[in-house]
Amino acid sequence: MNRKFLVLLSSLLLTVTFAAAQEAQKSELQQKAEAFDQQKEIAKARSTFIHAFNDYAAKGQMKPGVECAARAAALYYKENYYKEAFDLLRLADQNIDGSQLDGSGKAALHYLTTKERMQMYIKLRRSPSAVEQLGRMEAFASQSGDEGIKDDLLYSKAIYYYTFGMNAQGNALFKQIADKLTRQKEYDKVDEVYQTLIESGRKSGNANMVAQSYNSYIAWKDSANAQKVADEINALKEQIATQEATIADKDSSLTTRWVTIVGLGILALALAAALAVGAVVLLRYMLLSRKQKGVIQLANESNALKAKFISNISAQMAPTLQKLDSRQPEVKALLDFTSHIQTLSEIENAADDALEKADTPIQPYCEEMIGKIRNKVKPGVVLTVDAPKMSAQLNKEYVTHIVGHLLDNAAEYTPEGGTIKLTFKKRGPRTNQFMVADSGCGIAEEKREDIFKPFLEVHDLTKGDGLGLPICKQMALKMNGDLTIDPDYSKGTRFVLELHT
Q1: Does the model's pTM come out above 0.85?
Q2: Looking at CB atoms within 10 Å, which of 28, 130, 210, 495 has the fewest?
Q3: What is the pLDDT of residues 169-204, one digit of tens each?
Q4: Half-sphere exposure at residue 330, Cβ-oriented, CA atoms within 13 angstroms
């Protein structure tokens, strides 16, 4: 059997089985020994590996120590010093038995020393002794419970069979190894070893082995190619499924926007007949966008244009509505609704624009905000502020809008004798929180997620359009923050505005 093939199998085995068992850092002695080994200075490498073994053993580090002993033994019998190699392996076994390792750990290390003995008997062409060592290796592999060692045992058996001319058994065992690597999708490794097996047969003049190996290789190659194609098809199916899910999400978003814009179009037609042409154009554009749901970039551009169009409609409606009597509830409701629509559109149109921030003294700012609702609360309502004397970087326009809206809602829903509290907390080096708490009736748990969603229900505009909190939510997100309801607060309602600087 070609020596190159045996070396390849052994190196693959050592890499797979014992790489994970090495210490995180090799000792200086081991590094020197490996350097001597690479430079082909066998005597120095062997001596240094033995010193490294003794050093590791003295420290109780048996795994790297036994590995160094095994490598020193291999360098002994490489120069036909078999007695010295057997003596060194016997010493290593004594250290293993006297160590603090558990049964499985000792078995794994005994497997390594026994494997070196098996390889010496193979080199000596002593088949019965090699078979005896293989039996011991099988017992140690079972006791270790290590799948990597069990794989190594298959390679070792294959080396034995091929060395002593039992090609049929070697081929059968090697097919078992190849099948396992194929299941693990390590196709390149299997291909490389098959090629080496065929080349070894050619160099040794074993025509039967070449023919058997080649036939086995062709059969495996066809199977592996079929498996690769199946894997690629499955990967493409997963990719298609992911893309379809993404498109479905985008389509759902487009549908929500479509319903919103249609409602605004109807309102615009009712208020100003001159806007009818614009609404028709908008509807046609939306229908076209729905048909092209697979083109995500075009859909995103469409959304931006729609938002701008809505903003223009609201801007054009405002002068007409302002000429009407704002004391009428219906007129005031339409004015508020138009303003809210315009605000939502402006936030969306400026989604990528950076917001300016200013250094703001927190305590006076909070006192000022709470003071704005003193004339709005019911009799006996207690207003309090809990804010430290510090400054923070804020976009005052958005923060003032959000905190003001939350305080206005608290004033409206807090009964006589209740409490409203504005709190500021620094939660980290770059995280701040404003909290507005009231002792009102609270918000039902099943409605908490929906209150931040615009256009979820058809509202009587004279009783509010339901856009106040969704606008606040969008502003919070625009500031790289969030607006939520504290689920653990049970004395009413507490909103939390979290900001990240």
Answers
A1: no
A2: 28
A3: 877 777 777 777 777 777 776 776 677 667 655 755
A4: 3
Please name which of 75, 12, 10, 63 lies closest in space to residue 39, comparing C-alpha atoms. Answer: 75
Q: What is the mean pLDDT of residues 332-353?
A: 66
CA proximity to 414, closest of 445, 369, 383, 444: 383
Residues shown for the chain = 501
What pLDDT score was predicted for residue 164? 84
At residue 447 the predicted structure's pLDDT band, cuts being 50, 70 and 90, is confident
CB atoms closer than 10 angstroms to residue 250: 17
Q: Which two tokens stand for residue 419?
A: 């409490």
Structure tokens at 97: 């038995």
Strands 391-394 and 431-438: unpaired
Residues 6+ apart with CB under 8 A from 319: none
| Residue 129 DSSP symbol | H
Per-residue DSSP letters for 438-465? E-SS---GGGTTGGGSTTSS---GGG--
Phi then psi dihedrals of residue 205, to 5 deg: 75, 20
Structure-block tokens of residue 115: 């494997």
C-alpha closest to that of 71 among 31, 127, 123: 31
Tell me: the pLDDT tens digits for 411-429? 999 999 999 999 999 988 8
Q: Mean pLDDT of all residues in the chain?
A: 78
Inter-axis angle of helices 207-271 and 167-183, nearest 10: 10
Which amino acid appears at position 389 of this protein? K
User: Whole-angstrom Cα distance, residue 275 to residue 298?
Assistant: 25
Closest CA to 53 of 76, 70, 74: 70
